[in-house]
Amino acid sequence: MLDDADPIEWFVTAQTMNHDGDGLVEWMAAHPRLDRATALALYWHSQPGYHQAFASEEEVPDVNRSGWRVIHWLQERLTSGDLADHGLVFDPTDDAAGHDWTSEARNDADAAWQLPGEEVDADDWAAEHEWEDGMPPAVYEVLEEAFDNEDEEY
Question: DUF4274 domain: which residues (predicted)?
Answer without folding.
Answer: 6-78
